[in-house]
Sequence to fold (173 residues):
Amino acid sequence: MNPTNPDTPDSQEWLISYSDLMSLFLCFFVMLFALSTMQEERIEAATESLRGGFGVFGTNMPFHSGNAARPAGQGIGGTIAFDWGGDDLCDATRRELNEIHLQLLNTPNNIQIVGQARLGEPSAYRRELDLAYARAINVWDYLVSLGIGRERLEIIQQVSTTEHPRVEIRSTR
Fold:
């Protein structure tokens, strides 16, 4: 840079960095505006895309404990707690499923039913995976009886060393 003559071409080097910065700001604010007018499903998709762009995959959203608790950050679905070693739907569980059913009717998305059992959990089944499936299939049958289409439902089985016996119901794309 030539400090004695500000009109020389060397004195304009900062302009390139400045214009790059302004372009990035413009893109950032356009993205913020676009996200502010989107539907919730599109915002979640955009968030997942951004996470993937930064190399962070999966949502890792924490779940609240207790009956029919909703996943943090999501308004669709819930968690159904089961008795230790049991797979039966009691009256309270059916009432919770009735509430979740009303949420699921308002979304066209597919639904994951994630049956979970704890490693070493005593039950009438040979394997914990069978207990997890029995829990999920009981929830499946009840949701189908309430009018949820079978083609929208997917069962996932999980065995964990830390989780309380439960079934999670999640709306997916």
Observations:
- The chain has two domains: 9-53, 77-172.
- The longest strand covers residues 110-118.
- Strands lie at 77-81, 110-118, 153-160, 166-172.
- Residues 41 and 173 are 8 Å apart (CA to CA).
